[in-house]
Design brief:
This protein has 141 residues and is of the alpha+beta class. Helices cover 31% and strands 26% of the residues. It contains 3 helices and 6 strands, in the order βββαββααβ. A 3-stranded antiparallel beta sheet has the order 1-2-3, with no helix packed on it. Helix 1 crosses helix 2. The protein is globular and about 45 Å long.
């Protein structure tokens, strides 16, 4: 597979799940904390799963807008996606993720919304990166 890269970014993490992460350009910095469910203190800070959920949600809305532009479908300004990311041990060993996207497209009829979501799922970079690796459920609400 070949990718014509149009944008690159860099972020650095230190200290693992109880450390810090920031982008090279200095526009984003976050304190990381391991949730109690994963054996951490659950203190103030975010975890990689939260960051992944936020990124996937935003990216998928962008994919819907891209497809909507091609298909002449106006994605509502108040469209929203709530991503739920789960993490836990895999039966094959190691750890794995699950993702569920609750997609709200107010004002679009169900058939149009479903078609838009399915097409967006084919072009979204996060969907393409996870396909075949992570169970992703798409729920149009």
């Amino acid at each position: 597979m070949s990718v014509n890269v149009l944008y690159r970014t860099k972020a650095t993490a230190t200290g693992g799940r109880d450390g810090k992460a920031s982008t090279a350009d200095g526009t984003f910095a976050v304190t990381l904390a391991t949730p109690k469910e994963l054996g951490g203190a659950g203190g103030p800070g975010n975890n990689p799963e939260q960051l992944f959920a936020a990124g996937y949600s935003a990216c998928f809305i962008g994919a819907m807008k891209f497809v909507g532009g091609q298909e002449k479908i106006k994605v509502p300004a108040d469209a929203s996606i709530t991503a739920e990311v789960g993490i836990g041990p895999r039966s094959e060993g190691g750890f794995g993720l699950t993702v569920s996207l609750d997609i709200s497209l107010p004002g679009l009829d169900k058939a149009t919304a479903l078609a838009l979501v399915e097409k967006a799922h084919q072009v979204c970079p996060y969907s393409n990166a996870t396909r075949g690796n992570i169970d992703v459920k798409l729920n149009v609400i």
